[in-house]
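Priority: medium. Attachment 1 of 2:
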């Protein structure tokens, strides 16, 4: 019985060892197949984007950005639907800012802004003719004036697009708070009606762009808004200051905002040649 027990134990140990070896070989084969399908991290191609420095750690940046836009009758074929139209719109924004590079190609900053918008519609008559005989109207003497101030914190990633560090891409995330007033009038003379609104907005914006050094320590930037998560609060008042309405609105949108194209000039207070 003792010999039989030892024999069974020996056979069991041999089978277990063989099975373990076979499992190890199978695991190695499977791992080899996986590695052949997916490139290991240590062998992945490093494009060395971060090696192209555009902004250096320790830099202070002083900049100013601005945007300006107008709209009149000749800017859109849609205006051809109106007869005797007199329309003018102008928007101006000025945004000074300061930023600090806490590491190479990374910066945080603060921005302050002022925005003014003016729109006047002297006259417009719509007559669709044979398309819709019952649709026609005429409006005149409508105007809008809007002023607002905004304050924001932003984080910028720079990607050097050349080894000399002259051209760089900008990837900016911005947290913005905006407040202002908008006045609206309609009519003329003693029959003119006025109303006013107080506006508040909080936004999280994505603003990519491009920067180019035109002098060793000065670069020109162009950024554009492509996405925003925002909240708006609007309170409407009549001519004597009594609140007549209120609206709260929030949304997430991703689209190219042509009205938010900003061109700026930035001074980099650091000598890169010493770094």
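Attachment 2 of 2:
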């Amino acid at each position: 019985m003792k010999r039989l027990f030892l024999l069974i134990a020996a056979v069991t140990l041999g089978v277990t060892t063989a099975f373990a070896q076979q499992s190890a070989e199978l695991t190695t084969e499977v791992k080899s197949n996986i590695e052949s399908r997916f490139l290991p991290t240590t062998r992945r191609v490093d494009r060395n984007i971060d090696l192209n420095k555009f902004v250096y750690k320790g830099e202070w940046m002083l900049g100013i950005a601005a945007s300006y836009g107008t709209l009149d009758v000749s800017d859109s074929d849609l205006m051809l639907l109106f007869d005797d139209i007199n329309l003018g719109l102008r928007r101006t924004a000025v945004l000074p800012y300061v930023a600090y590079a806490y590491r190479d190609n990374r910066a945080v900053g603060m921005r302050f802004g002022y925005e003014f918008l003016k729109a006047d519609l002297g006259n417009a008559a719509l007559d669709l003719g044979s398309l819709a005989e019952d649709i026609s109207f005429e409006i005149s003497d409508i105007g809008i004036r809007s002023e607002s101030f905004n304050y924001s914190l932003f984080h910028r990633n720079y990607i050097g697009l050349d080894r000399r560090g002259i051209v760089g891409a900008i990837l900016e995330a911005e947290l913005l708070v905006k407040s202002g007033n908008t006045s609206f009038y309609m009519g003329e003379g003693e029959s003119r009606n006025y109303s006013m609104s107080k506006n508040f907005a909080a936004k999280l914006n994505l603003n990519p762009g491009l920067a180019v050094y035109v002098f060793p320590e000065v670069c020109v930037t162009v950024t554009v808004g492509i996405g925003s998560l925002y909240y708006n609060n609007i309170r409407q008042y009549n001519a004597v200051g009594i609140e007549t309405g209120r609206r709260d609105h929030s949304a997430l949108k991703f689209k190219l905002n042509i009205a938010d194209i900003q061109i700026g000039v930035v001074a980099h207070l650091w000598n890169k040649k010493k770094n």
